């Protein structure tokens, strides 16, 4: 009688909402990727890597300015914006 007890949660451990979604990279990884893109964008392909850094930083911040922000995400957004502006000025 007790053999079937708890079968549903053992098969699907994330079904009860205790763990976050693991379908993509976490926020810390996105922030670091954004910083790397922003720094690399100062040297090569700034018009591509600048917006990529902004997007990665924005996603790492949780798509909002409110609340607590991680430092790498904020650095990625700021450096990505500077990188994009410099690339646009260089093209003009």
Descriptive notes:
The chain contains four helices and no strands. The longest helix is centred in the last third of the chain and has 21 residues, at 71-91. The protein is mostly helical and 92 residues long. Helix 2 runs antiparallel to helix 3 (46-60) and helix 2 packs parallel to helix 4.
Summarize it.
The protein is mostly helical and 92 residues long. It has helices spanning 7-11, 27-41, 46-60, 71-91.
Number of strands: 0
What overall form do the CA principal axes indicate? elongated
Largest sheet: none
Question: How helix-rich are the residues, as a percent range?
Answer: 55-70%
Distance from first to last alpha carbon = 76 Å
Number of DSSP helices? 4
Overall pLDDT confidence: 82
Residue stretches low in confidence (pLDDT < 50, at least 5 long) are none
Question: By helix and strand content, what is the structural category?
Answer: mainly alpha
Proportion of residues in β-strands: under 5%
Whole-angstrom Rg: 20 Å
In N-to-C order, the SSE pattern is HHHH
